């Protein structure tokens, strides 16, 4: 670890338009189709929004990074359609989607916005700390129960969060499906807890000026 703490002031975006209603969406108490702000997503219908919102964690993280580095931030669904065309997601049936697929995502982010995006299939805690200290952001594959630091998640990976800070005590996450007032923005996760959720892979993002060392 670098020995110092770095936290980037990155704007937060939820994968649902109504971030305050996330607890209802993730428990099923409310359908995403009943999100009162669904039209802000740019979806053509409630049904389209309801299908994609639970799968939009990667696009929410990308929107955060774009905002942080001063790029215009597209609405969620138009951005998702671009990602589909780029091969970052693949619709494999009426109800199934493969993605986020890192390599085409990284290529797209570089071509589209001039970002530097480096796929890291093997990523450890010290790497995350180093990249954050360099001014980068890191997209991490974690299990969704990181939102509550669950003691026994059923697996690692499957959900994407954005590491925006790191230091000797742990890392700081923006979680697109985090809980309001608890684990959405600047959620501190001790290094000793990360291993339960983290799949050991991700994508390092840097602005064009910084590049990725």
From TrEMBL:
Q: Which domain of life is it from?
A: Bacteria
**Which Gene3D superfamilies does the entry link to?**
Cysteine proteinases
InterPro entries, sorted: Peptidase_C39-like
Give all residue intervals belonging to the Peptidase C39-like domain.
10-175
What is the designated name of this protein? Peptidase C39-like domain-containing protein
């Amino acid at each position: 670890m670098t020995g110092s703490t770095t936290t980037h002031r990155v704007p937060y975006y939820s994968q649902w338009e109504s971030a305050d209603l996330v607890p209802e969406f993730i428990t099923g108490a409310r359908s995403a189709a009943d999100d009162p702000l669904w039209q802000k997503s740019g979806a053509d219908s409630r049904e389209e929004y309801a299908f994609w919102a639970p799968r939009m964690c990667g696009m929410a993280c990308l929107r955060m990074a774009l905002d942080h580095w001063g790029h215009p931030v597209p609405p969620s669904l138009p951005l998702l359609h671009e990602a589909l065309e780029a091969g970052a997601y693949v619709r494999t049936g009426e109800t199934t989607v493969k993605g986020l697929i890192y390599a085409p995502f990284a290529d797209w982010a570089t071509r589209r916005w001039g970002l530097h995006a480096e796929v890291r299939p093997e990523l450890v805690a010290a790497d995350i700390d180093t990249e954050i200290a360099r001014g980068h952001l890191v997209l991490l594959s974690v299990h969704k129960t990181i939102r509550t630091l669950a003691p026994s998640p059923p697996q690692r990976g499957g959900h994407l969060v954005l590491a925006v800070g790191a230091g000797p005590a742990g890392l700081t996450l923006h979680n697109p499906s985090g809980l309001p007032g608890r684990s959405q923005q600047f959620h501190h996760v001790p290094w000793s807890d990360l291993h339960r959720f983290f799949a050991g892979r991700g994508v390092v993002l840097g602005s064009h000026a910084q590049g990725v060392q």
